[in-house]
Amino acid sequence: MLVVMKPGAPQSEVDKMYTRLMQTGTEVSVIEGTQQSVFALVGDTSKIEVGTYAANQHVEKIMRVQQPYKMASRIFQPQDTVVEIGSCKVGGGHKAVIAGPCSVESIEQMVQTAILVKQYGATMLRGGAYKPRSSPYSFQGTGEEGLQMLVKAREATGLPFVTEVMSVETFDLIEDCADLIQIGTRNMQNFPLLKRAGKSSKPILLKRGMSATLEEFLMAAEYIIAGGNRQVILCERGIRTFDNYTRNTLDLSVIPAIKEVSHLPIIVDPSHACGKWSMVEPLAKAAMAVGADGLIIEVHHQPEKALCDGAQSLKPEKFGKLMTSVQRIMEAV
Ligand code: PEP
Ligand code: MN
Description:
By secondary structure, this protein is α/β, with parallel strands linked by helices. The protein has helices spanning 11-22, 50-54, 107-119, 143-157, 171-177, 191-198, 214-226, 254-261, 270-274, 280-289, 316-332; strands at 2-5, 27-32, 37-42, 59-63, 83-85, 88-90, 96-100, 124-126, 161-164, 180-183, 204-207, 232-236, 266-268, 294-298.
């Protein structure tokens, strides 16, 4: 971290700053320029509250050299994290395909979908029992009953399942039955929820916030890891841009970018990224081509009757076709 003093800052203020910086426990070097003084801090600066130094009227600017995330960084852990969900592994060369409906609607829907997506090669099942909906008048999910339907679908197929948690209050309930716990886009910066996830014994699927930068995304993961849970899978699901032809814009570049700076696995959700079933397959192929560790895809047996996100849901046969072409891309890569 660099602390740049203003040109002409009184020597007494420069000295005071030096004394203060020495108390941070880092190694402090002073670079005396002709116009101004610069302090270079070497060591763990992640706990330093930058604002308290930037507020000093004699400070021109503070520049961070180190990333603010530590445990999520590849410097901290050079080898890829492999998250294990039963027999399904994600990361370090292991790929996973998670498929299922946006929302859990009925036991028949869940069991039938689970059987079909398994046949087509999915390694995990998805289904939201607690749904984050933009409108309070929209279907809000089947809640606790929905969780039981997911349990039944797992019993019928052996597929582990992921489901979303929206609040600290329902965390225990979901943790008791889910194999992988999803923290959705809208809650990526729900800090109490992230802290609770850090104490969980279950792996966490953390979806990128709608307008979260790569740094904010990794800082959210840092909350979970710093809390004690290292089993975190990231998920790129499209971000908000100026374009509204698609529901969101799939940020493919974040995948190689995350791979450079972090050891965490990252999967892609092409369904929420585009919002249109016809675009899910091409985006899924692109995601695997740029090195994603897997996919999460919405599949519904009757998309026209789906209670949530029907327009972006694939019919099971279409999902089967996607799996064949994605397989080819993976072999080619
Ligand atoms: C979902 O996976 O059903 C969901 C609501 O996703 P997101 O948080 O990415 O919008
Ligand atoms: Mn959905």
